[in-house]
DNA sequence: TATGAATGAGCGTTCATTCAT
DNA sequence: TATGAATGAACGCTCATTCAT
């Protein structure tokens, strides 16, 4: 039986405990990395015994999977916001750009970070989850880009794919830079990012 | 005493041994990642005993530090290429873009890969090395951008900083995407990357 | 304080609860062995919480001790059957042999199985219980062998002791063989066992 | 790679270490049972660190397998002795009976004991090994019983099978009795065992 | 009486590191 | 210089047992 579905007498408290663990784990993973953080430390951080964690998660792996899933949900809500905005996509996305930058440059909150990517290169399940999450995110983005109010909805599939990948690349890359240079500010980045993003959301020049 | 400075009877052979280890370790880290590769395997690959490695390196960590250090030295040659090209910088950089993309999307060749970045986020020495290398690379880039033949040489320092950071972000981000989606091709990426890069290398529109 | 003697408000219900646990535990031990069966599973089988079991038993070990204790009481009824039979002992025992074989080769029914014997070899209390039970069984057997209708009643104590031990050995040994070779049938065994048993119940030849 | 075949610089010393571990493990298993004995205790008993054991054995399971294999070899040599004896089988086996009894009643040496049988009921590999060992032993015994100098070589396969199983049962059963009653002596047992065994090695009476 | 949440010691195993030779 | 035998701390995980309610 999956621990996640294990019946607890008080589901509210159980959910709270789960969150405790996830928060603690995210914190530890961030500080020490997935391999560097031990269950003992996660337990200590979560304020419970190591053994008890296994009443809520089947394994350490299940914890990271949960973290990724949670992040996925969060990401969807961001796209939802974009979709709910009135006005043309270009404007909406450029206006919302600073949110995305904020998110990708908040090393604390963005837990699907380097370590998980690194883990993905070794752990098929984690890789699958990340790929799924990314694929869904790209689909959302594609929907936005081909929506009625988009300026580029008529272009080829391959070009669309390319735009999305480049957009995602630059955002993911920001995480790396922020990690290496914490002094880098959102404002600084936006100066050049906004024009570049505009280019990525508009028809390309012929020349 | 630091092993690196440990006195060896034959300094030439000692250096050769060190190289052996670094080459073997880089190979192993590539195939298995930093945590996945054991000292035993590195030793086997290097053709010496595990214990003997400790005559040349203080620890496994010292090895990865050395690898990164060595890699940094190589990196500058890339910018040299650009500098040697005739013509205006915009053209040169756009023409050379596919080389950069190639380099960042060749999972195999990019030794400073995920695991090392991840390691950097918690190893002071590695972080310092990467920051230094990155800073030097940014300086080279800055020199290119403000050179005689550049279209944007007259702009503000902060804007310049931003452009460079975004350029570096998107390139680094490509590595992450390629890792998660090996099926992503250089050609696909270039479709949107080229226009975006052009924007980043030209004066921005006023609006 | 010993849980067994712990005061319960309703001694009748307490006894019922104890039986519940013993039945459940015996079932679990059967299916999974002493080490293989966890308190959680026993509790689930008994229809109560794991913690509650400790209101009736001090430990898991105390449970197996109780099971064995209970089993011992049952065992005597077997010999009673023999004693109630008319006719000479040799005939009675040989006629009843297949019952004994059945019992020892029915892996399911024999609750005092391997795990418990194994447990006995390191648990003083269990060892004592098994020794007591075995001694009583041997005494019953001795009574049968020296009874009026026995053919060997006049022989030396040591010889009697030896006969009984060999008889008990072969019966116990059957359990081991059946465990390792479930395909072994009662009929096959009886072919050679009957003549051997006859020898053990009759005066020995001089040569 | 199987640890057993791992190359060690000094094979003599390596073999000695292996023996150390096997001896220590047999001792611990005997005192605490397979599950009760931890690697730490085995290591302490063997006079080496827990980790080092894994240079000689792949796992705890591999240790018990080795013990069983070693016991198998020992057993074969016993049969070999019987085969090498001149004279008719009945005499040889009866003369050698006390050796077998000794072996089965030496609780220390006979490590394929209760715990392994118990383990076999859960661990397929152990079960397979024990079954194999037993099958080979039975085949040896069968060869002896149908050999030229045997008194029963002409009897049916099923009867032969039965004889062997009963012989093996009584021997295995002795182990259980000795475990429960260490005061039981070989001499006492032999009084009744010898006639019974004689019966099992001769043609049965018609009645 | 009864629960199940919570504990913590212990499990088998790995591996960077040390050391006798 | 070079070996690989040996160490030991740490790992993820289990489970009998305790305890607040």
Automatic annotation (TrEMBL), chains A, B, C, D:
Domain HTH tetR-type: 15-75
Gene3D superfamilies in UniProt: Tetracycline Repressor, domain 2 (1.10.357.10)
RNA-binding among keywords: no
InterPro entries xref list: Homeodomain-like_sf, HTH-type_TetR-like_transc_reg, HTH_TetR
Record-linked PROSITE patterns: HTH_TETR_2
Top-level lineage group: Bacteria
DNA-binding region: 38-57
The entry's keywords: DNA-binding, Transcription, Transcription regulation
Pfam families xrefs: TetR_N (PF00440)
Matching PANTHER family: HTH-TYPE TRANSCRIPTIONAL REGULATOR BETI, HTH-TYPE TRANSCRIPTIONAL REGULATOR RUTR
Full protein name: TetR/AcrR family transcriptional regulator
Native organism: Pseudoalteromonas undina
